[in-house]
Amino acid sequence: MRCGWCETNNKDRDNCVNCGGPLPHPGALGPPPPPSPRVLPARFGERVLRPASFDLAFLGLGVGGAALFCLGAPLFPPFLAGPLLCAPFALVGAYLGWSRRNRGKDRIETLERGVATVGTVQAVSNEGPSQWRLTYAFDLQGTPRTAEVTSTDAEITRFEPGGQVHVVVRDATHSDLWPPMA
Ligand SMILES: [Zn+2]
Known about the structure:
By secondary structure, the chain is of the alpha+beta class. It has helices at residues 42-49, 53-72, 82-113, and strands at 115-126, 132-140, 143-151, 164-171, 174-177. The protein has two domains: 1-36 and 115-182; 48-108.
């Protein structure tokens, strides 16, 4: 079972050997979330807020490329136009990192403060190599809702349609499994 907080692989146990966070119990309901606001393992915040290497590659390409053009400008003045060509890469990288950080903040807020409820697994599907999607249904103030999570851990296939899962819900568009899947 891979830890949804820090992505460490664990043998069958209740808490992660690395970060101490509760581990998912695919196929069983497992212990309920503690009362809100919950204290999440610190490594989760670090992991979901930092930019991905993909974002940094774009940013580096843009900033590094612009710097190289500027260095070359004394030799060949038209290189001064280079930063204009590089700027879009830097902007894309900055935007990707920024939106990833916002999604991370949303996830943290949901897991810390979401209202605990019990949902039902609707489907688990394979979305490609090491990529699964789990759809779950829950009730939000009397209205049935569905949401989904993706995971890179094949253990998620031990959840079966109709089975129960702990869910934390902030609003119609922000919910997560408790504990989260990696
Ligand atoms: Zn962990």
